[in-house]
Design brief:
The chain is mostly helical. It has one domain. It contains six helices and no strands. The longest helix has 39 residues. The mean pLDDT is 87.
């Protein structure tokens, strides 16, 4: 299969995954949590292995071993309590939004005498703070929003890749006929 056909297949897969994320946001979040759990366990096993390995001149890097144990524990706990992991992710995103918003408002206040339009930075900060509080107040809506944003991104990226694949195929046909 030629490169343009692969782009079209890749785009179609992205578009399909995007639609599925919109149709089944709960499953989308569950899959993301499951992927995190699998990654944490695999990463933890690798770090534990490296931490227990003896390297000439360096001995056993205990920090990697500790990181490995923590990674394995995080992955196992995620598999045991996937709902808690999803909730913590939502709350972490909410906290990040609030902190980012506070810093943006503070920067706008400090810059008000230096630049014009600092109110836009303050507005951005206020919107971030509001978003964070909404995530805290309605974590289920936050999870739904994440699933829908992922769905919108993958569907849009899929459409772009399909268009690129078609364009490359058309350009290839023109070059072949020339």
């Amino acid at each position: 299969m030629e490169g343009s056909a692969w782009l079209i297949v890749r785009g179609a897969a992205g578009f399909l995954l995007g639609i599925l994320a919109f149709l089944w946001p709960g499953i989308t979040i569950a899959v993301l949590v499951g992927l995190f759990a699998a990654f944490a366990i695999i990463d933890g096993v690798m770090n534990l292995f490296l931490g227990l390995s003896h390297t000439p001149g360096q001995g056993r890097p205990w920090a990697l071993g500790a990181q490995g144990v923590l990674g394995i524990a995080a992955g196992v706990l995620t598999f045991i309590w996937p709902g808690m992991t999803a909730l913590l992710l939502i709350l972490f995103i909410g906290a990040w939004a609030v902190v980012t918003g506070v810093f943006e408002v503070a920067a706008a206040v400090r810059l008000r005498r230096v630049i014009h339009g600092e109110w836009l930075l303050a507005l951005s900060g206020i919107l971030s703070i509001l978003f964070g509080f909404v995530m805290f107040a309605f974590p289920a809506a936050g999870a739904l929003a994440i699933a829908w944003m992922l769905g919108a991104y993958t569907a849009a990226a899929g459409i772009v890749l399909i268009a690129l694949g078609i364009r490359l195929r058309t350009a290839g046909d023109r070059v072949a006929h020339a």
